[in-house]
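Form 12-C: Joint structure prediction
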Amino acid sequence: MNNKSYYDNQIVVWFLYATISWGITAFLVGLLAALQLGFWQLNFDLQWLTFGRLRPLHTNAAIFAFAGNAIFAGIYHSTQRLCKIRMFSDILSRIHFWGWQLIIISAAITLPLGFSQSKEYAELEWPIDIAIAVIWVVFAVNFFMTLARRREKHMYVAIWFYIATIITVAVLHIFNSIEIPVSFLQSYPVYAGIQDAMVQWWYGHNAVAFFLTTPFLGLMYYYIPKAANRPIYSYRLSIIHFWALIFIYIWAGPHHLLNTSLPDWAQTLGMVFSLMLWAPSWGGMINGLLTLRGAWHLLRTSAVIKFLVAAVTFYGMTTFEGPLLSIKSVSSLAHYTDWIIAHVHGGALGWNGFLTFGMIYYIAPKLFGTKLYSEKLATAHFWIGLTGIVVYYLSMWAAGITQGLMWRAIGEDGRLVYPDFVETVTRIVPLYHVRALGGLLFIVGALIMVYNISKTIRGRAIVDDKIPEPFEKRNVAHKPDVGHRKLEGMGLAFSILAFMAIAVGSVIEIIPTLSMHRYLATDKMALPYTPLELAGRDIYIKEGCYVCHSQMIRKLPFDALRFGPPSTIEDSMYDRPFQWGSKRTGPDLARVGKKYPDLWHYRHMKNPREVINNSIMPNYPWLLTQNTDFYSLRRKLSVMKTLGVPYDDETVANADIVAEKQAEVIAQGLREQGVVDDRLEQREIVAMIAYLQALGHKVVDKEESSEEESSDADEEESSDADTGLDNDTSVDPDSNPETRIDTDITAGPPTAEITGRDSEEIP
Amino acid sequence: MKKEALSQFQNPELVLLAFLLFLITFLALTYFVMRKGSKEYYQKLSQLPLFDEKGGGQNVR
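Section 2 - Result
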């Protein structure tokens, strides 16, 4: 019904259905991923179902499908009521709904197929990125036009949080998604290495802040007063909460990169602003909880209040833990471990999940003009779900701290107490089983909700809610407003100021990283990947290896003892996208190159347990049978060159031939060690081996490089005379000086070795 | 020139400036919302979500 006297409840109901459906999907994928960590056999040797591809599917489904649809349901429901007007356009509302669902379906298809940018929570490829931007703009136009036409002069605090969400998510998404397409479903980001890391975690952290926090705070400020039938504890505190939170949050991204090669000033800045977040976060939590002052009895009688109160409590706990984890010394223990997984799920399941459930239980009966089918079932859902979260959280907390302590244990002899990485994994596998149990309980609770809601609305039609007269007209005597009061009635000015609040932090933090050349050591230079290594890198990204393996050795003694010298900015300066990772279910790979023979990698990818007892890594047998896409390499190198990677024109023009030559050498080495496959040089495993063997060997001393170059020059001339090709990746001195490491590279780098290496025995 | 200008952003003075900007905004905001007469005004407005549907706002304290 398109009647301007009534709220548009239909769109709210659609988003509610989508929330529930995608929520169950996201939870089930999460459960399978959790079980895969406990039982590697559940990867089924199927590439579409391996952990590396499922984990991004799980996170995207949980964030953008479950939480996203929940946000939209809540915003469409509350904005109309707070503005006393129907949404601006029913057509835009429906384009938004169907567009968003198509984006989710696209993600559900492309991620398991391996089309991924490997940037966490921003994995989707460029056509989907564009679709997200378009649909977000549709949503924004619909929202802001509703705001412009509102009948209630004052914009209630929930609206402010929605404004901040819409503006900031647009800014984050657009800037983090700037990429150049290579093909229909592949692209390379314009940022590389440390720049990419900084921009990505500016995005990643603030995706949590402005997709999973601010909109849910808006929902909290609306639904807790509604459910408790009393106003928010302190409206004045909510004003301070809002501005302090959005101003500070945007700065905290670098706390994801502590102890890395990121310059110290940026790390300290991220840490300090993260600690400052304690104040506004807890201000908001206290404001939410104290709304129930004098009505705590509702906790006993109302399942909705139970969910909302528990959600706000989880918000408080998670926002206490977040700044704690941002302290450099705490981060040195927790980062890369399951403690972070515990932290994330405390927020996702407890805060986002429970707030959504509370909202669903509140809205659904009202939209269908009835009462909840069973308060008892809702209460059962609450207790089962809460038990699930606690089991999940505690098991991952214990796993994270256990593993973190094992990693850093150094004996009196100065050696690692647990030098075998796998030993630190097998110790916590039982806790992975417990975690899966927690997840299962959470899902059981959610399924109870599905039953309860379906029984509630069965056979009923959506009610038509007539829009009442504006509240202010009846209740608030207006004097001329000044200062913030005036601002609360000015949608455009408010939005511009909110944008400025988030822009300050973004500009001051991000712009220096775009001129990172200042931090690069002048006596070092990085070599670009050879075409075959680049092909292998793309396979590494496709398989989601970054999900379990970092490529960032932190400036910590125990990291250096285990993995080698700390990573430097140069190590990843041509990495598009960067692969620093955020979790180590397997060891760091930043310096894994030439540590093991080619055959070791071959056997490891085929079946990790052939070379590492008790490994929980999936098998990758398809890498031994699928062929590398050599033909796209010219295009890939061309795009890389456009982005500033110093490939010369000849290498770009003959990228596939250069790659095939390197593959033949590696394949020959493998054959000599007993691998039987007539078309071995074409297999993906060979490209993958080339990439893995290059890791940690792409940075050389400039002097060394010059010497090698001059001594190699004569040999190359004669050896390449017959083909007319360089079989190395050399640097074009004229290409893109901006990206070079600061000084003269006209001498060119040393040739990347393409030799039969590693004839050592398999350990 | 462009590079030099951009590189200046890493100066701690600018970070300090941003912090001061936040502090001033925060203090000004606190003053505005806490000044005389604000409490009553905001108390009334805080009831806005309770009166957005027909029959809403019953039993409000």
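Section 3 - Comments
Confidence is low (pLDDT under 50) at residues 713-763 of chain A. The CA atoms of residues 600 and 762 of chain A lie 6 Å apart.
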